[in-house]
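tool=predict chain=A
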Amino acid sequence: MKYLSFLLLLIAANANAQAIHYKSVLVDTHNDCITACIEKKVSLDQDLTGKNHSDLKRFKQGGVDYQLFSVWCDGERKNPYAWAMRSMDTLEAVAARNPDKIVIAKSWSAIQKALKENKIVAQYGVEGGHMIEDNIDRLDTFYKRGVRYMTLTWNNSPTWASSHADEKDPKYTGPRGLTAFGKEVIHRMNKLGIIVDISHVGETTFWDAIKTTTKPVIASHSNSYSICPVTRNLKDDQIIAVGKNGGVIHLNFYSAFVDSTFAKKDAAFRGRHQAELDSMLRTGIQREYAFSTLAEKYFTESEANKPDIEQLMKHLDHIVKLIGVDHVGIGSDFDGIDSAPKQLKTVLDYPKFTQALIARGYSDKDIRKILGENFLRVYRLNNPQ
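tool=predict ok
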């Protein structure tokens, strides 16, 4: 009888989580599936189960209402602006084939209409200021195509801002922080309605950006340095500054940014398969997708290294404790990472994130904020039209 009562309570709790999850507007500010599709020569409107973390059908099944698609290439690719255009062309082709499922929404009214019609709202986040190739007018082109945030740097540094990776590299000789041109970039972004994204930036660039912007910022995919001390995560004073700015920090699911013990275990895993990894890299595949391919091939081995979702929740709790529930959201990094918490394997698993929030005592109102309303507020403050 006790077992039956427990089972009924479990079923009721799961039903409650499902109801909250699917009634909320779920916004994910960072998914790399465009690049993953290009690298793997597949299309987002195919069934990509076992190939990608994401596809069009599974987005809806997982409850995603609003996705900001990352437009990314590393610092070694020639003509990054042309690559950005190609990436956007790729998603536009998918949207053109599936007008009943996905809309590249470029205004608040278009966003509202798409949500009402149960279509996925699609916009772009350019991951790395190097993609404008020092031409500020390209921001205007980006905006017209549906770009609604730009990460000031990726791991590499454009000529006008320093990344987290370069700021800790003793061999780096470029500028630290924002140059005068870098500040112009932020002013143009503020004017256009392209949200300033401070994920990936160095600390000097972070503080320059906070002082320069006139609009709320986001960290599209970053966690807490206090919980996992890597330079891709935000220190407490940075988190507090984002809160004072009115911005939002969107949690990254990547295991190395969630769990401080993961990197050592992952390095050993890659070392055991180094020859195969080197062989893949010689084909020209970008390094991050070689890592993903390796993790998928040796799934059981890589799975054992992953943290539990509870470790991710510690990041959320810490941020909420510092600056409140109005300043945290989701930026999964799906299809740009090779490892996430065990319960968060694909976009189908977003309801498990909601279940974890309920288990930690967050109210329905708080959950709606975390899943999407916090980002929508920042979006409106950057894009009133």
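The chain has one domain: 23-259+307-382. DSSP finds 18 helices and nine strands in the chain.
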